[in-house]
């Protein structure tokens, strides 16, 4: 599913193996952060309508001067939108915010509204997916997928779709490897994107991770992001500090299978 530099969706579209995440980056800071990422070689930028920073993410991409086809841009439909017409309307809002002609990847942000986590929105998700299939068929989006979908949520789409989701973006990091969900996605050729690969920083003070990072001559952050790649998932690290933006992409090392197994066994490594 992946070579050194990209993952490939089952429709043949390639996506750079590391994305620059913009969750929790305010709109007023997003322009500088995305510009720093592009300057330092990132060609995959991830945003969402709910992040309230699409305007400056898009402006940074346009102003940087990179050819549109050379940068992969992802955004997401707000989690509370669960109807066909609403999905089309919010897609147009996202495109207006970004100032781009097409999206590379569009995701349903969650299977339920964030203020009603766990609510059964199966029928709404099916309607939204039909809208995304339409946008895909029209050439407005190069790939479509979901985010935060569990197996049962994915199965409902699979049972009612014409186009199988190409990606599922989920929280994935050392101590939360979501083995069953990962296996299910792989069985359906769904690329898994790993958001919060550092658990929003909560795992970086782990003694075990620090010790292993020292063994490889890397930082705990680099080890944690590389772990996601070793698990055949696509990490989306985020930072507003240029040194860390650079560091997060310097992953030209491998973790031995034995050490991956040790990291797999760490189940309670978040900072207390």
From TrEMBL:
SUPFAM superfamilies: NAD(P)-linked oxidoreductase. Keywords: NADP, Oxidoreductase. Residues 17-267 form the NADP-dependent oxidoreductase domain. The record marks 76 as: Lowers pKa of active site Tyr. Substrate binds at residue 109. The active site is at 51 (proton donor). GO terms for molecular function: oxidoreductase activity, acting on the CH-OH group of donors, NAD or NADP as acceptor. Belongs to the aldo/keto reductase family. This is Aldo/keto reductase subgroup.
């Amino acid at each position: 599913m992946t070579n050194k530099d990209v993952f490939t969706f089952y429709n043949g579209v390639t996506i750079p193996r590391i994305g620059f995440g913009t969750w929790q980056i305010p709109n007023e800071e997003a322009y500088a952060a995305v510009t720093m990422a592009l300057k330092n070689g990132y060609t995959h930028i991830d945003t969402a309508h709910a992040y309230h920073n699409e305007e400056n993410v898009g402006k940074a991409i346009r102003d940087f001067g990179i050819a549109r086809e050379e940068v992969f841009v992802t955004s997401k439909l707000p989690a509370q939108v669960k109807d066909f017409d609403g999905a089309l309307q919010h897609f147009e809002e996202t495109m207006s915010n970004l100032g781009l002609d097409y999206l590379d990847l569009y995701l349903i942000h969650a299977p339920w509204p964030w203020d009603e986590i766990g609510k059964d929105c199966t029928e709404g998700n099916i309607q939204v997916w039909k809208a995304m299939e339409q946008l895909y068929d029209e050439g407005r989006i190069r790939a479509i997928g979901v985010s935060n979908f569990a197996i049962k949520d994915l199965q409902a789409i699979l049972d009612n779709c014409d186009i199988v989701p190409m990606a599922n973006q989920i929280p994935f990091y050392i101590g939360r490897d979501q083995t069953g969900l990962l296996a299910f996605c792989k069985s359906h050729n769904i690329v898994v994107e790993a958001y919060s690969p550092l658990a929003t920083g909560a795992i970086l003070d782990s003694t075990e991770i620090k010790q292993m990072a020292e063994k490889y001559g890397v930082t705990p952050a680099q080890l944690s992001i590389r772990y996601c790649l070793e698990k055949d998932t696509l990490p989306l690290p985020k930072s507003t500090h240029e040194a860390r933006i650079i560091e997060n992409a310097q992953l030209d090392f491998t973790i031995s299978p034995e050490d991956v197994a040790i990291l797999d066994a760490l189940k309670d490594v978040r900072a207390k």
